[in-house]
Amino acid sequence: MNHRYLERKSLVFAVLMLVTVLIGGLVEIIPLYAVKATVPPLKGVHPYRPLELEGRDIYIREGCYTCHSQMVRPFRDETERYGPYSKAGEFVYDHPFQWGSKRTGPDLQRLGGKYPDAWHWLHMKNPREVSPGSIMPEYPWLYTQQLDHTSIAARMKALQRLGVPYTDQEIATCGDDYWAQVGTIQKNLQQAGVTDLHDTPEILALIAYLQRLGSDIEWR
Amino acid sequence: MDDPETTYDDSTPRWFSFFTMFWGGVGMLVGLWAALELAFYQLNGGEPWLTFGRLRPLHTNAVIFAFGGNAIFAGVYYSTQRLCRVRMFSDVLSRIHLWGWQLIVVLDAVALLSGHTQGKEYAEPIWPIDILITVIWVIFAINFFGTLWRRKERHLYVALWFYMSTVLTIAVLHLVNSACMPINMLDSYSAYAGVQDALIQWWYGHNAVGFLLTTPFLGLMYYFLPKAVNKPVYSYRLSIVHFWSLIFLYIWAGPHHLLYTALPDWAQTLGMVFSIMLIAPSWGGMINGILTFKGAWGRLRTEPILKFFVASLTFYGMSTFEGPMLSIRSVSALGHYTDWIVGHVHSGALGWVGFTVFAMLYWMWPRLFRTELYSTKLCEYHFWTASVGILLYITSMWITGVTQGLMLRQASAEGTLVYQFIETVKILHPYYVVRALGGGLYLAGLLMMAYNLTRTALAGTPSDERIPVK
Question: Which of B189, B168, B165 is nearest to B178 (CA)?
Answer without folding.
Answer: B189
